[in-house]
Amino acid sequence: MAGTLFLIPNTLGKRDESDPVIDVLPAGVQQIAARLDYLVAENAKTARAFLKKLGETAPLTHAIQQIEIRELNVNTKSDALDALLDPIATGRDGGLLSEAGVPAVADPGADLVRLAHSRNIKVRPLVGPSSILLAVMGSGLNGQSFAFNGYLPVDADERAKKLRDLEQRSRKAQQTQVWIETPYRNGALLDALRQHCSGTTLLSIAVDLTLPSETIVTLPISAWRPDRLELHKRPAIFSLLAQ
After folding, report:
1. Helix (H, G, I), strand (E, B) or coil at 71
2. So where are the chain's domains?
């Protein structure tokens, strides 16, 4: 009988060494993660750091050195996914651990989850912080209808076109458009929004979610100024709703 693939959420952003994971991960999730001896993660080193932190509030059943960790990231070939599921297919419970937030959402684990379904392996998603949902919750924008758009194009012209498309889509459907950006490009993205979108369009930016420095600001684009919120190198989620 096959085991279960648990989808294990991680904390968001770099936390202070004194911050326990219990601040953002329910006790039941910690207990499940603490008993597993097989994990699939984007980076083995950071996965071990997570386990070390987890062990402070939920004692690990196995020593960290005994826990098998295999990597799944953007460089993993599709024909390597089956091997990642083989231990679970033979009866061993395993976990898919996100680098930050929840697995398989804006995360390379989605293909592994789909393959697990095709192999009749039980998939169990666990409760944890999602920067996307937290940003929508805290934005005050339309939470009945929203779409996550991943990363926008890096090229300035393509990015400008994409922003205009998102604004038009939002206005037509009254749908909140959500996306993420690489932290060092946050400032350039804000400049592009101010340049290419209507001043009446609402823009919400959420940074450092769940961290002590968490800040969420929602304003019309016309009211946004470069000094309104420090964005440089801070994990941010952008949400837009056209009026």
Report:
1. strand
2. 4-125, 131-241
